[in-house]
Amino acid sequence: MELTALMQTPALRIATPPLDPICAIDFVLAQHSGTLWSILWSNVDYAGAVRRAQERLWEPWFAALNDRQHRRHLMPFYGAHPGRNS
Length: 86
Description:
about 60% helix, about 0% strand, 4 helices, flat, about 90 residues
């Protein structure tokens, strides 16, 4: 069985938001233990901790994506096509 290049695609990779330990644990629980994740999200302390982690990491990250200068450095291939202004 030949498995080389199995996960390689010619398409550009989509930039994903960063994860700290809190966001990573929340992501794994959401994907693999929906019942436990729902119970945890009903806890005000857990929900607040996850929201603060998301705000701390994601607000600056998405702001950088929205800024043309930063976007050129984060995703240089998107501006490399003729006729594109981003």
